[in-house]
Amino acid sequence: MGKALSLAAVSLLGIVTTSIAFSGAARAADEPKPYKIENGKVDQGTYNGYRRYGESCLRCHGPDGAGSSYAPDLTDSLKHLDHDAFAQTVINGRQNVNTANTNVMPAFGTTEDVVNYLDDIYAYLKARSDGALGRGRPKRASDD
Q1: Beta-bridge mates of residue 95
Q2: Quick one: residue 73, left, alpha or beta (phi over 0 = left, psi -120 to 50 = alpha)?
Q3: pLDDT tier, 101 (very low <50, low <70, confident <90, very high otherwise)
Q4: Is 84 helix (H, G, I), strand (E, B) or coil?
Q5: Are 68 and 61 in contact (CB under 8 A)?
Q6: Mean pLDDT along residues 139-144
Q7: Coil, helix or strand for 66?
Q8: Measured distance CA(26)–CA(141) in Å, rounded
Q9: Using H for helix, E for strand and C for coil, what is the string for 28-40?
Q10: Is the overall model pTM greater than 0.85, yes or no?
C-alpha cells in the first residue's frame, strides 16, 4: 500500500513539474514581442539591451547570449523563461549546485546598470532567442 502510494506521489509530482515547465514555455511564447525590428534595424530599447548585455552579462554568458563553459546559453533559456521568470533570476540570482552542476548566478537586484535596464536586456536576448536577431552588433533604427 505504501509503495503504491509513493509511486502515485512520484507520478503526480512528475505531472505537476511537466505542467509547470510547459506553462512557463507557453507563457514565454504567448508574450508580446518586447523588441521591434524593421528592415533589419532594431528599436532603441533593444539596441540599448545589446549594449548593457555586453557590459554586464557577456563576461559569464558569452558573446550574443550564446553561453559559455561558465554560464548557460540565454538564447535557449529564453525559449522557456517568460519576462517575470527572467527578471526574478536576474534580480535575486540563482543557485543550481548538486553533484552534476555547480552553477551560481549572483543577484543583480542592486546593480543599477542591470536592474534599471532589465527590460532592454530582455528585449535584446528575446530577439536573439526568437531568431529575429543575429549575432554581433545590431543596426539601430536611427542608423543610415
Answers
A1: 104
A2: beta
A3: confident
A4: helix
A5: yes
A6: 87
A7: coil
A8: 30
A9: HHHCCCCCCEECC
A10: no
CB atoms within 10 A of CB 119: 15
Tell me if 125 sits within 8 A of 63, measured CB to CB: no
CB 43 within 8 Å of CB 142: no
**37-38 and 139-140 as β-strands: parallel, antiparallel, unpaired?**
unpaired
Which residue type is seen at 28? A
Quote the CA–CA distance of 48 and 54 in Å, as a whole number. 10
Amino acid at 15: I
Q: What is the pLDDT of residue 89?
A: 95
| 31-81 pLDDT per residue, tens | 899 999 999 999 999 999 999 999 999 999 999 999 998 899 999 999 999
Distance of alpha carbon 62 from alpha carbon 71, whole angstroms: 8
| Average pLDDT rounded to a whole number, residues 119-143 | 96
